[in-house]
Amino acid sequence: MNSLNLFQLLNGLTFAALLFVVASGFTLIFGLLRIVNLAHGALYLLGGYIGYAAALATGSFLLAVLAAMASVALAGLALDQGLLRFVRGFELRQVLLTLGVAFILNDLGLLAWGGDTFTVPVPEALRGALRFAGVFYPKYRLFVLALGLVVFLLLWLLLNRTRLGALIRAGVDDAETLEAMGVNIRRIFLVTFMLGAALAGLGGVVGGAFLTLYPGADSEILVFSLAVVIIGGRGSLPGAAIGALMVGLLNSIGQVMFPELAYFVIFGPMALILAFRPLGLFGRAA
Amino acid sequence: MLRRHLLGAAAIGTLARPALLRAQEGPIRIGLMAPLTGVVASGGREMVDDFNWYLSQRNNEIAGRKVEVMVEDDGSNPDTALQKARRLVEQGRAGLLFGNLLANTGLAVANYVKGTGTPYFIPIIAADDLTQRGRIKNVVRVAGYSASQTTRPLADWALKQGYRKIATVSQDYAFGHEQCGGLAQTFTEGGGQIAAQFWHPINTADFSPYLGQLANSGVDAIFTMQTGADGTRFIQQYASFGLKGQIPLLGSMNATDQSVIRTMGPEVEGIVTAAHFAEGSDNPTVQAFVRGHVARFGTIPSLYGFSMYSGAMWVAEALEKINGRTDDPNLLIDTVLKTDLVGSPLGRAVRLDDLGNPIYDIQIRKVVRNAEGKFWNAPMASYPEVSQFWKYDQATYLRQPPYSRNFQGIRR
Amino acid sequence: MPRAGPSLPRLGVALGVLLFAALPLVLPTYQVSVATRILVFSLLAVSIDVLAGYTGRTPLGHGAIFGVSTYVTIYWVTVAGGSPWAGMALGVLAATGLAAVFALLAVRTSGVYFLLLTLALGMVVWGVCLRWSTVTGGENGLRGSVRPAALASQVSFYYAVLALVLAATFLVWRLVRSPFGLTLRGIRDSESRMRALGYNVPLHLFIAFTLSGMAAGVAGAAYALFNEFVSPTTVSLAQSVQGLLMAIVGGVGTLFGGFIGAAAIIVLENTVSFYTERWQTVMGLMFVLLMIFAPEGVIGRGLALLRRRR
Q: Whole-prediction pTM value?
């Protein structure tokens, strides 16, 4: 009964797809701005709540996604311009500041949404399950898997085929030189921060439809995202993809095969990777 | 709604006077703890609301004395709960404590009042041993239940439906072990078979690993023990994986509690659970309570609200008998143990057994849509006079070990 | 992170000790238990400051080290039926061993990565405590009567904790004032220079981390006797965060600031959460404001200003 089959493989992959969407935003911000944004989980939950409210108001899943992405990007703008600007260049102060923001957002979310569990409603076309290759699998989860691939593709195109992407990549490697060359690096930083936040918002709506929204969902997704980024390496898109796959599959396998050690199965390998490759699998020294 | 005041000043004001005198005049001071922040905050809020609702119906007076409720947030955290209990008793001079939601918070506070002797009433904390092997006399489960008490009739009912083979999916902690254990023991003793038991951590985001195995397990029914957000997710994912309609789903009472299903859709329909309270009962007393709750708070009451409301009523009736005296903990506890709960939203009288746990008529409930289109639990069968010991001899039962992941009382 | 200032004037320390010694004479019982709590967490903050203030590495896993000692102590007394003293010794030993393992993995990292790695290791400990329920009691934890009869009264227990915490703090203070401590500060200020001078940097960090874990373990063992209850929340991230907050409020690199930080946070928690349920927001705001205006800590900042004036 405890064997790994297609079903569990799909479970691991779909969870990995969501993790990728959330963690790619995290890793972009970490890579370019050197900010470990511990409020990323709170932004995810905020996006989920806003998406839920928008979906109820408009009846449209697409509008919910757009509303969530836009408002969380604005929240990112506020966080960056309102608070983080005062601690530029101090990595630890940034981390602890975002930790404080995470506490505040979590508490305000509780105040505003009251702690009940919500689920973002899914469009009719994505309800129910598909039968293929001998398994019966929910359509929505397959949609999440596809979405993860699309987001990967779009981000890859953005980073590798556009001028902005070239600047971001250059910024990850060496922000000082770029600035010396006369590029307005602050603007790029800000755009990246908002993009990363918007991805958290997207994750919140998409995840909120199958993992539900509740106080505490923020820290859970944050811890998983941390694991993904630590494994993959700061600022690396392929790293985030590999990290998400590892964490998603380990989570699926760990729960089935080693229930008592479920956390160990995820964080054990992560601690080892970090100890021997402190910058992660794809990380490069600054 | 919440009554707050500066404890320090009040405590200093009463310091100089002799203890007995102080306790017999002045207000009745109740320390109420609930998780107002943390993962179960919405349940905690309802606990406080319904407790205060009951008291407000009697003008915050018991036996002609004013009642002062000191509300403290336990933060869903046992260390915080313990600290708050200390403060309520030692600084706030609470004559009695009420509340807490999560088992670990209740157990932490119970361990503390064991030393102080303070009466502690736990309408929500269901940990079996608090009224069984590890009984503490001053801890009484007014209007609460012990975890394995209500799943035994559910097992009996399942056998009567012809289910012979079931699997269980449960949160991996004592409350889950106990609720599952009650079911597993009664079910297997009646000739049924437990095909598999899955234990998952609290706050499992993704149930797909378990659902994947359940889909092909060939069982007659699945029992799930869930609380809070896990309940929402499990039921939803059960439906989205196509299991709803294929394998009947049975649950612990918390899995389909209003606190879970009030934000959910048709995926909850048809789940069968067992509990002492069923908000969808056509008993007029029950309906009067439900209507009152909807009018006041806008929601159908959950177990949290019902239990705190009824628990407050229970203790208030006992306090009436002894003129509101809280200076003698033993007197209060003995009086509560002898008091029957008469006017509660259950619609019929309830008494406590000699270990401080209520004996109920347990309802087998099914989630249905009511006239307003809302989902609720409607009773469809009833098991009268179910104690925490079911049909077992009390002394024999207490010799078996407490339920755990390794001991589920399964007879093979 | 900011530099360590010169040691506090002896007079201040003496006054502080006298103040703590006099507290039970003037405070009611409940406040004595609050003061006991402050002492226990002061030592945790001091142990965190050894790393944050003297090696320049900010840990987010000390709550786990602290809590493991609590677990072992309570397990030894309530499950194995041993004496509390042996339990405390075993608890400290376990915490020291765990810290050594953490140190082995973490000494090669610094900055944000050190913080993330210790956070992750702490999460592993939390996960094990949560799920290994046959030993740890899972979510419900372990409880029972742990405190020795001789220390049953709140006041006598307070003095015992005071003695223990002062002794441990004294040893830590000796450590950071020793040549070894000077080397640590050298590493904090310039790792490459110390390496060039021939110092074995990883070994120094390993020893500092292990000893810091030992101090956290002493605090955890005292907490076991104080609380007589332990559950996964004791080893959770929130515990590590709170300990770090105390160290920062007190002033990173001041060591004794840990006492002031712990007192400030616990007193605030006891007053604020009384008026409002928004303690989390208050704590979050404190972090934000501290990081923007006084990353070296309110007290540290005040002391620095005072010193400058003289």
A: 0.85
